[in-house]
Amino acid sequence: MPNSFGKLFSITTWGESHGPAVGVVIDGCPPGLPLTPEEIQSELNRRRPGQSDIVTPRKEEDRVEILSGVFEGRTMGTPISLVVRNTDQRPGAYEDMKEKYRPSHADYTYQAKFGVRDHRGGGRSSARETIGRVAAGAIARKILAQAGVELRAYVTQVHDLTVPAAALVEFPTLAEIDASPVRCPHPATAAAMVERIKAVRAAGDSVGGVIECRVRGLPPGLGEPVFDRLEADLGKAMLSLPATKGFEIGSGFAGTRLKGSEHNDAFETRGGRVRTVTNRSGGVQGGISNGEELVFRVAFKPTATILQSQRTVDVRGAATELAAKGRHDPCVLPRAVPIVEAMSALVLLDHWLRQSAQNRTFKF
Amino acid sequence: MPNSFGKLFSITTWGESHGPAVGVVIDGCPPGLPLTPEEIQSELNRRRPGQSDIVTPRKEEDRVEILSGVFEGRTMGTPISLVVRNTDQRPGAYEDMKEKYRPSHADYTYQAKFGVRDHRGGGRSSARETIGRVAAGAIARKILAQAGVELRAYVTQVHDLTVPAAALVEFPTLAEIDASPVRCPHPATAAAMVERIKAVRAAGDSVGGVIECRVRGLPPGLGEPVFDRLEADLGKAMLSLPATKGFEIGSGFAGTRLKGSEHNDAFETRGGRVRTVTNRSGGVQGGISNGEELVFRVAFKPTATILQSQRTVDVRGAATELAAKGRHDPCVLPRAVPIVEAMSALVLLDHWLRQSAQNRTFKF
Amino acid sequence: MPNSFGKLFSITTWGESHGPAVGVVIDGCPPGLPLTPEEIQSELNRRRPGQSDIVTPRKEEDRVEILSGVFEGRTMGTPISLVVRNTDQRPGAYEDMKEKYRPSHADYTYQAKFGVRDHRGGGRSSARETIGRVAAGAIARKILAQAGVELRAYVTQVHDLTVPAAALVEFPTLAEIDASPVRCPHPATAAAMVERIKAVRAAGDSVGGVIECRVRGLPPGLGEPVFDRLEADLGKAMLSLPATKGFEIGSGFAGTRLKGSEHNDAFETRGGRVRTVTNRSGGVQGGISNGEELVFRVAFKPTATILQSQRTVDVRGAATELAAKGRHDPCVLPRAVPIVEAMSALVLLDHWLRQSAQNRTFKF
Amino acid sequence: MPNSFGKLFSITTWGESHGPAVGVVIDGCPPGLPLTPEEIQSELNRRRPGQSDIVTPRKEEDRVEILSGVFEGRTMGTPISLVVRNTDQRPGAYEDMKEKYRPSHADYTYQAKFGVRDHRGGGRSSARETIGRVAAGAIARKILAQAGVELRAYVTQVHDLTVPAAALVEFPTLAEIDASPVRCPHPATAAAMVERIKAVRAAGDSVGGVIECRVRGLPPGLGEPVFDRLEADLGKAMLSLPATKGFEIGSGFAGTRLKGSEHNDAFETRGGRVRTVTNRSGGVQGGISNGEELVFRVAFKPTATILQSQRTVDVRGAATELAAKGRHDPCVLPRAVPIVEAMSALVLLDHWLRQSAQNRTFKF
Questions:
Q1: Is the minimum CB–CB distance between D283 and chain C shorter than 8 Å?
Q2: Using a CB-CB distance cutoff of 8 angstroms, which residues of chain D are in contact with residue C200?
Q3: ipTM for the whole complex
Q4: Which end of chain C is more exposed for a tag (fewer CB within 10 A), N or C?
Q5: Farthest CA pair distance, chain C
Q6: What's the number of domains chain B is made of?
Q7: Which residues of A fall within a CB distance of 8 Å from D8?
């Protein structure tokens, strides 16, 4: 089931960018959780198009409807079906895409794989698919929040603009992150990022960057070696997002330049429990959470859609040129922040349930 | 099933470092494949301890035995059970580990998760577990090879020593890679790496680095959006390996610093089929292979085991010190090369079968 | 994912009887299949309430809407989301069920499991859930039909009325089955069954019975030992239907009274291929189809909802009485016929794809 | 993974009848369980060949070896690998089977599916495969026993000899069941069954029958609608066993002849909790355990191997005759009793863990 994710708290997303709707079915949700459409909506609003002047102006309210699984304001343990209707469809704007493969998009590969495709706005490969992920993630994060877990994703790099490392020692607040439309919690860098995004958009170009995510309040013990290590499932979750090209946890690629004596996290007893003095491990050791802050980063490439003319081929293989006309995000990162949080919440809740099943059900 | 990997060509590994044996069961292997123990053994020999003077001297022949699934030299489509006995066990050497948590190892997290653990040599968290992966990968890669697919992993970075980018334009041969015990195909860099590894070992320290993997001969169409994208499953596979901290595909983290106009891969028709002019996508677009060379990189942290004294706590939480005495790899990368190849082969064959099932079985 | 079924052609159903809607997401459908809503609708019409005077008069059009996965009349290989709105909701009619557990229904067990439940019409435990199965099954059976496979379920027993064994030698036609509202292809028995159902309904009572299903045109080779045997997956599929209490294939329970010499199916070569002379195996040997007609039977208990007063307890455990008032089926079998066919089609198509993946992709 | 079973407590079996060994890997076992090889062995001894004069005389000690997952006498939560060597191999006895398809065996279907097969003793299709199931089941049942659950399977029918219904009101003891080699707890019937089995064996023939299984001590709440209903997973488990042709729960096929008013199980409060007055449901309502005794029955066909000459075809399709010479069970039921118990334990423990994960981890 390539459109499903999670073993115990599982989601199945469906929908094309310009079809009637997109949605998600959540299976395995613990019962009894109070849940309103508004709680889901507020997360969707953070990824909605048109929310600021540095994202796509596509006009979608992304209004979520709960079709099942919730009764009298509480989850029932049965599948929760959520639907968002697509309203601002301009299929005419995509006629070119019917005939030509957009460079670094999925047009050609979908055609090669399936032999057919919905060319309108990328069809299934559109980031619109992530609506279902964010909606489901809203539920997962609410459960985690009740268990004391906080998740926070934010932009640390756009193009070559990077938050100074020293500026990120504290766990940023939601207010600090959302203070800027670019969702970078460092005001000076954020301002520069907004300018950069506007500048590349004006030039018909695009930029990428890096999102960092931190989670605190996790108990030790989450993650299932040897294949379902916590970082492996987090990595898969992130690399399943459109436009991602890399994932690293803790010290990541930079850590490869340290010696073991510099990299190892010494243990100490602090606050009555085993803690590490440093956190180059990023909260995970041997694939299992160690109770420290989870820290990872995701690389997003520059948006493939640009307004400049590009060399490509048509569906018959003939050389041609193509320049996007439609609405698009010159930088996907601001809207990807809630998506990264959603996927993190899904992975963590799923692993919490798995851990509970194997290791907390029976005592011998 | 946290110890299983793959949907159609699936493996289940088992075994602890100092238990009686380690092994793997392969389910879903296509029938009729000629297969000898020697073909599996030759891959195991590339990851075997004691193969050179820059790896651990633990004496293990890692002799594989086929217990099922092969009859008269051919696979039968039934589960293939492979076992390797552990022979060089020195449990005495690990008494310290029973009482003390080794920094940046999985001792503490296994204890926190399961409440019990086999402390000897890391038990299940030992890289010895990867024997099963390499054995299974040998079968997967043989099948892929018959379909024209070649996989090649090699070391591109050890500590701060990096192969010059210009030196890696060609797909390296196995001979070029294995010419040096460090498995770096650039002779000058390889020589420096070997010296570096010897130096840190002499200092009781360790180093990490980066392995790059390239695959050619893949058809377009492999990978299953939206969650089982090819890069997502490759990323999960790599991040499920011990000591990994990062994964990137194609342009990766560096690509985040380019503009869309610089990053996009233009299409052209070449050799009668649709090709990209550049390959910043790394062989994957929209989660599906595009027929170009697959290129990805994996970050390995410095080996956690070092001979220097380190600060830690014991199982009761009391502060203590610990210095490893046992045999260990000062740098895991040389032996990780065949493991990366094995995991790649497992992912690619599994996706090949999945692609065949959905998109090649029926024609309408 | 307890609400998902199938490995490669997978469905996920959702929805409660008196919630806003019920539906299904189909993942893994082969692309390129011509598909109209009408083709799905015609199957739904066979299970729709109100279709005859021996089934529940609940007024539901069960109008299906395709929300994704189909573009310009063809499947795309992406998830197909189908929704049916619930329209004839009379929640008031179920107030009693809020306080009292209906005997032999799922009220008590859902409460015991989840701690909450939608009491209206059984909520998730309602047979209304099977709408999604029938809708998905319509697609599966269309694909199978194009491959030459025909499925036919029909009623062979209602209460103690049974079709004479000799009357079922031929594969019945759809017209023969649907000639009577009870969907029994033997006219005399069918007439008696209709009378019996009307009589028990008049008495406020209910009856059960047996549905037989036959499939012809299957190739040998479908089914995956050792756990995913064809009969095991068919059995699970049938026993996952509401009100089922038994499943048997081929000679079934009666076959246990034969000796091996009487029961074995001799082989012969007929029509150029290996055939069995008899078919006590029911089309499956060792868990794999042998190319003969698949024959199995499913036992359905009498409808739990009866209009007579019954002894029960309320949600606080106090003794009470309860008599159903709502609309219900005095016998579920007529409407279960298309459901049995749908589940069969789902199992068979899924196994066809699995067989293709492992055994038809590579040739050595 | 067709050779795996279970979602959280999962097993993967492997091995051919005349290969080097058979075995199982158990993944997801709760840690900390005291476990000795002897506990597993005692279950294996109940299914071992040669244990009485009404079963096959094949000489196999079926000595189990634990290769991983257990340390210092306790499970660790890591995969448990169990191996049993095949010792009494007489491949020569099976030369005929290389050339001829045995009627009602899996020879032809394995060949049709995989294109190759191990003809010796049925290879993978041999009931020898169930060793792994019984070994894994021994662990599952030990955990269940500690939670107060008892499982008991026993033979109720051999050929046309049936235990009188009135004789089975009590939950039989293990001693009562194993008092006779046929494992029927009703002494008079058991004696007749033994005579019947000896008689058919003397005639070179075989017989089948029915095994009933009862489980008590289960909490309400196990089972996961809509597809993973408890009876659906039990049914699949049983129908995945060699030689099974049917499954029924509670009232089963006979219940189809009752009216709703006769069949429904009234509720009452008894012993401080909600109970049913009767148990036609067989312990399951709506796919979820209701806390009553679980009762189900499994139909086994007469052993396909008979010593009489039978009509068949050879691998080229030419008509021929075949008479078995090897050792075989004239009736599989006595040895199938522990296998039915093992599969029941696997299903129930798996569902217990699933129930715990979704419905016992979080409280809102």
A1: no
A2: 259-260
A3: 0.98
A4: C
A5: 69
A6: 1
A7: 354, 357-358
Closest of D176, B244, A33, B75 to residue C364, by C-alpha: B75
Is residue D352 within 8 angstroms of chain C, CB to CB? no
Across the interface, whether the CB atoms of B357 and C354 are under 8 A apart is answered: yes
Average of per-residue pLDDT values in chain B: 96
The number of C-beta contacts closer than 8 angstroms across A and B is: 371
pLDDT-derived band at A328 (thresholds 50, 70, 90) equals confident
Q: What is the C-alpha to C-alpha distance for residues A122 and A126, in angstroms, rounded to an integer?
A: 5
In contact, C306 and C324? CB cutoff 8 Å = yes
pLDDT at D180 over 70: yes
Q: Report the sign of the C-alpha dihedral through residues B291, C8, B226, D351, in that order.
A: negative
Beta bridge partner(s), residue C10: C27
Give chain B's radius of gyration (CA, Å).
21
Helix and strand element counts for chain C (H, E): 10, 18
Neighbors of chain C with 3 or more C-beta pairs under 8 Å: A, B, D
pLDDT at B207 (0 to 100): 98
Domain span at residue D149 reads 4-360
Among B229, B358, B360, B363, the strongest candidate for a mutation testing the C interface, having the largest count of C CBs within 10 A, is B358
User: In A173-206, which positions are buried (b, 16+ CB within 10 angstroms) versus exposed (e)?
Assistant: eeebbbebbbbbbbeebbebbbebbeebbeeebb
Contact check, Cβ <8 Å, C358/B32? no
CA B178 – CA B45 distance, rounded (Å): 12
Buried b (16+ CB within 10 A) or exposed e, A320-338: bebebeebbbbbbbbbbbb
Categorise residue B158: left if φ over 0, alpha if ψ from -120 to 50, beta otherwise.
Answer: beta
Q: Return the pLDDT at B168.
A: 83
Cα–Cα distances in Å, from B355 out to B50, B219, B228, B230, C70? 40, 11, 12, 11, 19
Question: Can you say how many angstroms the Cα of residue A95 is from the centroid of all Cα atoms in its chain?
Answer: 29
Helix (H, G, I), strand (E, B) or coil at A47: helix
* Residue B22 in contact with partner chain D when CB distance is under 8 A: yes
| CATH number, domain containing residue A71 | 3.60.150.10
Task: Look at B364 and C8 and tell me if their CB atoms are within 8 Å.
Answer: no
| Residue C91 pLDDT class (50, 70, 90 cuts) | low
**How much is the average pLDDT of C102-125?**
96
SS3 label, residue B314: strand
Q: Are D282 and D296 in contact (CB under 8 A)?
A: yes
* Distance separating alpha carbons of residues B74 and B34, to the nearest angstrom: 4
Does the beta carbon of A357 lie under 8 angstroms from any beta carbon of chain B?
A: no
Q: Is the pLDDT of residue D93 over 80?
A: no
- Residue C349 confidence class, pLDDT cut points 50, 70, 90: very high
CB distance from D350 to chain B under 8 Å?
A: no
pLDDT value of position B91: 59
Distance CA D355, CA D315 (A): 49
CA D161 to chain centre: 21
Structure confidence by residue, pLDDT tens digits, D240-296: 999 999 999 999 999 999 999 999 999 999 999 999 999 999 999 999 999 999 999
A33 contacts on C by Cβ (under 8 Å): none
Question: What distance lies between CA C289 and its chain's CA centroid?
Answer: 20
Contact list, D225 vs chain A (CB under 8 Å): 78
User: Could you give the CA distance from residue C180 to residue C197 in angstroms, rounded to a whole number?
Assistant: 13
* 8 A C-beta contact, residue A191 and residue B245: no
Residue B225 at interface with chain A, using a CB cutoff of 8 Å: yes
- The pLDDT assigned to A91 comes to 59
Cα three-residue angle D33-D38-D44, rounded to 5 degrees: 105
- Side chain identity, residue C196: R
Q: Who contacts B191 (Cβ-Cβ below 8 Å, separation ≥6)?
A: B180
